Amino acid sequence: MPLGAAPNYVFAERPGACKLSNRKKITTYDIVAVGFMAALVFVSSYISIPLPTIIGNTRIHLGNVFCLLAGLLLGGLKGGLAAGIGSCFFDLTNPLYIASAPFTLVFKFMIGFLAGNIAYGGRRAAGKLSWNILACAVGSLTYVLLYIGKAFAEDVWFLGTEVQTAWIDVSQKAVVSGINALIACVIAVPLGFALKKALSKTRLYQMVMR
């Protein structure tokens, strides 16, 4: 394809699918799967314990569990989209986090995207427990670093907070984010392994992961 040329979309043989010239397909099954997982991410984000910090607030929640599950069950791109979209919609419905929604979209996307790509890399198809553990750890750690970096920059550059105070705030958020990451990995790894084994036998899941 020439540089800058638009991809050529054509109808696929199967109804409900759109096929790209490089044989990649976007189907109704994909859209439904991403939407369903995004809804689970959205709902699970409400299951939380709010915690105040020296400047703002943070919380322990189950949203990241389903962000990781999205990656383990749907793969990198679809899992990342489900994680990012579901988390972003949660922020948009909460006045405390609405300003962070664009960052959340990107940061949570990275959780599912990295977890999915690592779990499914090298034709593993998320069937290797050790790789699933690594996938969840990398996805969670990446999010923690992005979140903490954003929090520090926001405290210092936008709120004008003294660096020492900002470090205290970031340290508190880092501890809570670490707890969230640990909880997410501990739950998502075995749950994702079990769910994938069960779902793999269903026709719908096979169509999503064709």
Sum this structure up briefly.
The chain is mainly alpha-helical. It has 7 helices and 5 strands.
Structural class: mainly alpha
Q: Order of strands across the widest beta sheet? A: 1-2-3
Major β-sheet profile:
3 strands, antiparallel
- Percentage beta strand: 5-15%
Quickly count the helices: 7
Helix content: 55-70%
Average pLDDT, all residues: 85
Spell out the helices and strands N to C: EEEHEEHHHHHH
Give the CATH topology: Arp2/3 complex 21 kDa subunit ARPC3
Q: What is the tally of beta strands?
A: 5
What is the top-level CATH class? Mainly Alpha
Low-pLDDT residue spans: 1-23
- Summed up, the domain count is 1
Terminus-to-terminus distance: 25 Å
Radius of gyration: 19 Å
Q: What gross morphology would you assign?
A: elongated
CATH architecture: Orthogonal Bundle
How does this model look, in words?
- Residues 1-23 have low confidence and may be disordered.
- The two termini are 25 Å apart.
- It is built from 7 helices and 5 strands.
- It has helices spanning 28-44, 63-74, 76-92, 101-120, 129-158, 163-199, 203-208, and strands at residues 10-11, 17-19, 25-27, 48-52, 57-61.
Helices, strands, pairings?
Elements: E1 10-11, E2 17-19, E3 25-27, H1 28-44, E4 48-52, E5 57-61, H2 63-74, H3 76-92, H4 101-120, H5 129-158, H6 163-199, H7 203-208
Antiparallel strand pairs: 1-2, 2-3, 4-5
